[in-house]
């Protein structure tokens, strides 16, 4: 069985084969993307094959829809795979729950060779055993009550279950040292007799990961440092089954500012879906995840180049450069990067990325008109430098699509109008009324209603004519046009709205004073 599989995996395309193997137990963890990025970078650097495998043997924690979220979020980030449950491949199936027949022969062989045995202990008996060990300040671990016994012999003893599990028989001289591509020589604690097959017939992670990585020809196992303590168990299984060990690389864990491990229970941003919902660009998140455990390249002057794309990250990727110290997940750094990427987008591209958020907030319907899309592009150009997250666009864009008689005036904006607001609005209406908005030329593309003409007219009428400083002069106009104290550039906003809407909004606010 083993020799046949080894021969078949050697014929799989791509010498280097890596995988990411999330469990569909809820919203995908940001660590899944973190691991996928580093796995994929090394794979692409070496022209290999990248696999996505769904490890769904934990049936208790399984969550409907979670697998699809894994597909969606990794695709959104551009961390795509060559083989997987959704696209197939030479090692299908890629869901562990569909591979149960694969594991049983390996279990039977381990039992036959004396490397594993049946355990009939009930959960209650195991709990009592652990509590007793803790009371006596002994190391916790299975006491091998079932080892060497037949089912009849074990039935005579307390805490018997009719449905056994299968445990490894870990020898005293178990190998506890191994080589790691990131950490060098690593020493791990001695494991106890780990369960490898549960009572429900599903393998535990420890057996399934070894069998699947072997059957799928995985050459490099890259995972979080929390699995270091489990690696001796896996090495034993590789040795007992007579199969070649992959190379190991244990990535540093992502940590909070207080150095604690991030978790979905305590950190909403540990959910990979949170970043998309919160208006982050996938390019920024990929860039950020790369910076977390990898030193940025340097430019000709020796300065760090912190903004890079996946191709840049892949070009000179080397496991020896990965920092083994757990990186701090600094959202301020991610916000900075997100702003950089937003400002770098072509205006039309940014406008298209804003559309889903604007539709979700009811600012635009599902099928905006060409005129609305043209206006959105113009507005996007105004607000591009004012956003850190795409979610901020709705508040900035909404006034440009609100009906003139339905524009809501924020309370703080109304309270800050000042005593001269009525006079300023009157003067502005008169001045702007004198600007022609009629189009001329063969294509009707020219109009006097431009930001420059609007600014000149208002400065002449209000700043100079009423002797009011500019920072006070335009506040009432900003409130009338946007409903807010702070808004996109005023004169450009008026140009986009057009003369009719601008004057209507000035008159509407004036009527309330």
Quick structural gist:
This protein is mainly α and 513 residues long. Helix content is 44%, strand content 10%. The protein has 22 helices and 13 strands.
Outline the structure in words:
A 3-stranded antiparallel β-sheet has the order 3-4-7. Strands 1-2 form a two-stranded parallel ribbon. Strands 5-6 form a two-stranded antiparallel sheet. Helices cover 44% and strands 10% of the residues. Mean pLDDT is 92; it is low at 1-11. Helix 10 (282-293) crosses helix 12 and helix 20 (475-482) crosses helix 22 (499-510). The protein contains 22 helices and 13 strands. A hairpin with a 5-residue loop joins strand 12 and strand 13 (446-447).
- Strands ordered across the widest β-sheet: 3-4-7
Low-confidence stretches: 1-11
Helix content: 40-55%
What percent of residues are in strands? 5-15%
Number of helices: 22
**Which structural category fits the helices and strands?**
mainly alpha
C-alpha-based Rg, rounded: 32 Å
Q: Specify the overall morphology.
A: elongated
In this structure, how is the largest beta sheet organized? 3 strands, antiparallel
Instruction: State the total count of DSSP E strands.
Output: 13
Terminal CA distance = 87 Å
**Average pLDDT score:** 92
Features:
513 residues, mainly alpha, 13 strands, 10% strand
Write the layout of secondary structure elements.
Layout (H helix, E strand, L loop, with lengths): L1 H9 L6 E4 L9 H16 L3 E4 L13 H11 L23 H13 L3 E6 L1 H13 L15 H5 L4 E9 L8 E4 L3 E4 L7 E3 L7 H11 L4 E5 L6 H11 L5 E5 L20 H6 L4 H12 L3 E2 L5 E2 L4 H6 L15 H14 L2 H14 L9 H14 L9 H9 L9 H5 L5 H13 L5 E2 L5 E2 L3 H14 L5 H4 L1 H8 L7 H8 L1 H12 L3
Parallel strand pairs: 1-2, 8-9
Antiparallel strand pairs: 3-4, 4-7, 5-6, 10-11, 12-13
